[in-house]
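--- STAGE predict ---
source: upstream dedup step, 1 unique chain passed
mode: sequence only
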Amino acid sequence: MSTPLRKTPAPSNAAAPFTGPATLEAINDEVRGLWRYAIVPLSSVGGTANAITAVCDVPLDVAQKGNGFLLTPVAANTGAATLNVGKGPKALVNRDGSALAAGRLAAGVQEVVTDDGTSYRLAVDKPAASSAPPLTALFAYQLARNTASANIVAGWQTYPINMQVQNNIPGLSLNAATFTLTLPNRPLRVRMKAFTNNADPAAVFLWNVSGAAPITANFVRQPACLYGAIEAEGLITPATSMTAQVKVYAVSASGNFGEPLNLGSPSTPEQYGFIAFEAYP
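--- STAGE serialize ---
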């Protein structure tokens, strides 16, 4: 077989003559080249989970490498597998030539495979399944039921986050006695909500304790209203491990941190607000 030219002989692209065996052979080379790189669906897929058989609906050249097939397994493999499309069984392997792990093939999930001459290689690697849960944390301001919450004062006031609800972010921790959070050196999404019953404007901030200043960049805030909630959310990327608190700034001393979230039975504590974190790449 000569090298395909991606065109059939014609007066516009080849020298005369255009008759006889030479022309037919040239056309044959082009047709074979087209089939060599075509992706052909396989039918009548059967055999076993690890010894798969299938039928190719077009004639195959046994010596031809590069044939591509669309395979739809009927069962998940339980280990190393072979595929026979009428050219004899060959190993069915990953794109890098390694043996398939159990469960790499799934029933009804199509796979593109190519013949490299000695094995059939899957065209796409299956992403490794991640069993790790997302890195998140939730801390709350919690009091025993029917316990009065802190009063709002004018100016800056530390919001008394005092309970860890959930946390699996490495390097993130709460000191409930000082309402202080230690933040790791990594990007974090932050959301804060404080329930209030004050009539004057207020806002909630994440406060850099060591820098003695609020973190305002990349944050969006929702001001408070009477019997409402003050909210803020944004992104932070501490350059180093940082100590922080949740602080509220109020125009005047008016009301307190209520109304609470009455969750659960009458004997359960009440949550008056929270700060949530999510680690992101």
